[in-house]
Amino acid sequence: MANAFEKARADGRAALVGYLPAGFPDVAGGIEALQAMVAAGCDVIEVGLPYSDPVMDGPTVQAAAQQALEAGFRTTDVLRTVEAVAATGTPTLVMTYWNPVERYGVERFAADLAGAGGAGLITPDLTPDFAPEWIAAADAHDLDKVFLVAPSSTEERLAMTVAQCRGFVYATAVMGVTGARASSSELAGPLVARTKAVTDLPVGVGLGISNGDQAAEVASYADAAIVGSAFVRTLLDHPDDRAAGLRALSALTEDLAEGVRRGA
Amino acid sequence: MTAGGVQDTTIDAFGADERGWFGDFGGRFMPEALIAALDELTDAWHDAAADPAFGAEFDAILRDYANLPSPLYLAERLSEQVGVRVLLKREDLNHTGAHKIRNVLGQALLTKRMGKQRVIAETGAGQHGVASATAAAYFGLDCTVYMGAVDAKRQALNVARMQLLGATVVTVDSGSATLKDAINEALRDWVASVDHTAYLFGTAAGPHPFPSMVRDFARGIGDEARAQCLAQIGRLPDAIAACVGGGSNAIGLFQAFLADPDVRVWGYEPGGDGVETGRHAATIHAGDSGVLHGARTFVLQDEDGQTVESHSISAGLDYPGVGPQHAHLARVGRASYTPVTDTEAMEAMALLSRTEGIIPAIESAHAIAGALRDAPRLLAECGPDATILINLSGRGDKDMETALEWFSLGQPQGETGGPAS
Q1: In chain B, what are the helix, strand and coil shares in percent, each to the nearest 5?
Q2: Burial code of A129-157, b = ≥16 C-beta within 10 A, e = fewer?
Q3: pLDDT (average), residues A66-95
Q4: A177-190 average pLDDT score
Q5: Cβ contact B28–A127 (<8 Å)
Q6: pTM score
Q7: Residue B166 backbone class (left: φ over 0; alpha: ψ -120 to 50; beta: rest)
Q8: In a designed cystine with A219, which of A142, A264, B136, B381 is the match (CB 3.0 to 4.6 A)?
Q9: Pick the CATH number of B21-66+100-214 from 3.40.50.300, 3.20.20.70, 3.30.300.30, 3.40.50.1100
Q10: In this predicted complex, what is the ipTM?
Q11: Catalytic residue at A144?
Q12: How many separate domains does chain A show?
């Protein structure tokens, strides 16, 4: 993980982090899509674990997760996906709500994720103060722990959170759920500045970024632009023609990858 | 006697620690974006609970507006049927027809104190939505209620009530389009609106401080009932009983009796078609430990931790999770939780209607049915003076359509006029 950010930094640019849920449109199709995103310029991949009650996700990611679950997604599918994507050499994290991990067994999940070549976890509904089991398991298996900071985080919580992060810090650009937004956030810049004041870790910005211009803007003050819903939307828009969906996905990735180079 | 329940927030053996842990259950599994708001709410609640003026205002509103304290009623004809003395805590007589008015008035009063102008709420059957819309109207707050599309269709009359009270009702199509999805959508709203909006959570579940705070706003049920029972029969009951969905009416009753070791504490969960069919909502009886809607508790889930759809004839109990304090009380053995099927509940609804002239909510009928089933045990253990106190948490007006269908009601049973042929 550190290598991906160092490489981007050496290139004088921000990193591009791309997200898709596993099992969407099916497990093989999801792997193919994520590999296309890697080939077209994603520096880091987040594989979502579809969950029945995704409170931090807007309609786009909800729809994809629901489709994956209806098609019979299992937790082990996320590990298969990670294994296939990590084999490209690109750092691959899992983004997951907490209950599926707790149900699988925290230590067992950490061991299997490490075994699959995964880099770590992003935990949108688990904060460090309620994560002793995960922190212990991540430390034991040398996995990254990416916790979120928000515009509403107090200084005290920012410091507490970044102290427990490894890999990078995920800054949520807006007070809201995932989903593409037309306007850029006025909250993200100040949040990144506050975060950088208390950590040397790279800081990525997510929520609402959907095109190269927005990625460029984020790249001007952050270490990574994190994009999810825009990729999901692209696949949702091509339900019957996977080849066209993959082409559109690659084109979007290239636009975003150009953005993180232009903006830094 | 006071009607309100905010006077005593002493942390007791069965309560939560300062981080919201009831033993292994509870806590706060939430997005970081909401943590500051939950901390702010916790501080405001503690501050209000320590303020005699807040308690006095809450008591006055409950008394003058919500018709509290509710009576404790000796149900003599039902007692004959059950075989032990039955005392009913008449929360069905409250304004808006259920115990839920206590919680929403408490939270809305707190909202006003915090200077927020908008409230949001989730609702399943619509009862908490109606109560929230009522409290919002009372305090002049903007109100948006999230309701699963399936539920909104089942409970069109309650949608109309909320709208008449001035609330905006938003239907939710995602997931199973029921209560859990309405909670998800309300949380999504809250993440984006938290600076000016309070979330009036409908039950004693969710992230800290909701399980403790909702309980304390509802605990007047038990505080009143305990004092009324002592006054009426000169001693405590041998058992107390309540239905448990999320569990706010039950914890509101139980809290006052937890430190009385001789009082048996019985919760009745929605057994639906029978636990063995898989179509039920008996979360403690048949669920496993997991995290749902911000707390670790018992959850109906599959082997991958995906939430399983619950089923109950009672929409108000139809929830795949349960308040974490109930999970704790079950684990340490202070309370027992057993399932009651749809059929048992509907039979109890009819029994109470015909013996006492009280049509209960189907939720509350679960508690009547459970007490009916467990009364022989109480009689054997405590003798002929055995007494059970049941929380009649709500009235059944809202359930008449279900009853009409279940009992094939609504058809005239006889005619007058012509001579028999």
Answers
A1: 50, 20, 35
A2: ebbeebbebbeebebbbbbbbbbbbeeeb
A3: 98
A4: 85
A5: yes
A6: 0.95
A7: left
A8: A264
A9: 3.40.50.1100
A10: 0.96
A11: no
A12: 1
